[in-house]
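Extended Data, panel c. Modelled sequence:
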Amino acid sequence: MSKSSLAAAAADLLSSRADILPRSRSLVGLDGFVDSILHVVATRENAEQYSRMASMATFGRKITAAAGLSANFEMVPQLLKLGGNGPIMANALDAYGTPVTYVGNLGAPNIHPVFADFAARAEVISLAEPGYTDAVEFDDGKLMFGKHLSLREVNWENLLEHIPLERLVKLFNDSSLIALVNWTMLTGLTHIFEQLLEKVMPLVTGPHWIFFDLADPAKRPREDIAQAVDLIAQFQKHAKVILGLNLQEGRQIGEVLGFAPCEETQEAVAAHAAKIREKLGVETVVIHPVSFAAAADAAGSAAVVGPFIEKPKITTGAGDHFNAGFCIGRLLGAPLDVSLQIGVGTSGFYVRTAKSPTAKDMVDFLRTL
């Protein structure tokens, strides 16, 4: 299918089936961050005007040049927003019209003001104070500086203190989509996976999608990654598992499973997703590099090019918006390539506008492609 006809097919499907979304609850967790989006000043003309450092490579060279000396970099705040893989994905799902229950660290004893609007639209259960991230954005990437102390409170014991087991089972049963994300930063999530597999998932009935995003596992030991991936595969006994990865994560998981790194081509990434899926025995594996996305399920594999923009308004959260859009496609029963198109479309809309699209927004945007 051509690029334009695929976008049209995605728009038609989303338009005709969007009424399913208000009846498809999403349960998402378990992180939560306050994100500060920052630009680095290259030169400052006066108190109001400055030139932004556009290249991460330039920033890196300046840091390297200061080794053994010192350096001062001015950061200009652009936006203070809700952050974390979970809240960003949940906010995007909510914009599409799915009722959302969010469990994570959004503030204690009160919800942090940055989540107030989201909490007014979704059911939220906060476990602890949020983490904090300074996201320094460039045209060619971003640097994320995180403060993660509060994330240690995201553990099985604290989860049960806030949600008794019987209610947790009901939340899982009532949700068409369950998304458990940011395993890398949530060091208690492996144990939560184990407890969910033992005490919750055997009681879950009916068709459910369950989405996992490890979120840059490079800093975790190989044996921890292998354990997490093995546990994720076990969820397939109880639900339809989607494992979502960016390109680097796809290579990391492939290496743990014994595969050579894949090249950054549509064919190679699609084949890599198929190999990971076959090895784990899960429903779907999706890998999203910057310029395209590829996935594999029981019906085969596919790759779709994203709607590129040279100077995005925002990039932090683009991957989480892709994940939300792809899962929307799966919820609506879309074929793999159409799900990918909705995913890259959702991400493309977000980086252009810094807003999460509604279903109508996405239909209109897809029609322009």
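The first strand starts at residue 26 and ends at 29. This feature is highlighted in the accompanying rendering.
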